[in-house]
Design a protein that fits this description.
By secondary structure, the protein is α+β, with helices and mostly antiparallel strands. The chain is built from four helices and eight strands, in the order βββββαβααββα. It is about 35% helix and about 25% strand. The strands form two sheets. It has a five-stranded antiparallel sheet with strand order 1-2-3-4-5. The two termini are about 20 Å apart.
């Protein structure tokens, strides 16, 4: 089995040019440069990276953010993901929506983006 995302020292998760430490350092970096992002969005991005390309359902992402079930009709996760994509610039396109399910990171494309 090939591990495409690696754990860095501390709680950081790394995939290609993207480095996220949502707990210990509270920081996101792209190619070594810090990216401004709220802590909840950092946690959501780290969760997607730890999934290593697998889909994470919107309900699980919301539960991680808010600690409770996703309210019917809520777009909160979608809003967070849109802002994550914007903050990541061109790398944001690698955060992929899976219709009616959730989101995933296109790990292969992210690794090629080095």
């Amino acid at each position: 089995m090939v591990i495409v995302t690696e754990r860095a020292p501390g709680d950081a998760v790394v995939c290609g040019p993207l480095w996220v430490s949502a707990g210990e350092m509270c920081e996101v970096r792209v190619r070594g440069r810090r990216v401004a992002m709220s802590v909840p969005r950092q946690r959501l991005l780290a969760r997607l990276l730890r999934a290593q390309g697998r889909v994470v359902c919107r309900e699980d992402l919301y539960r991680d953010l808010a600690g409770g079930p996703l309210p019917e009709g809520s777009r909160a996760v979608d809003v967070h993901v849109a802002r994550i994509r914007r903050a990541l610039g061109p790398l944001g396109r690698h955060v992929v929506a899976v219709r009616h399910v959730g989101y995933r990171i296109d790990v292969a494309a992210l690794l090629r983006a080095r």
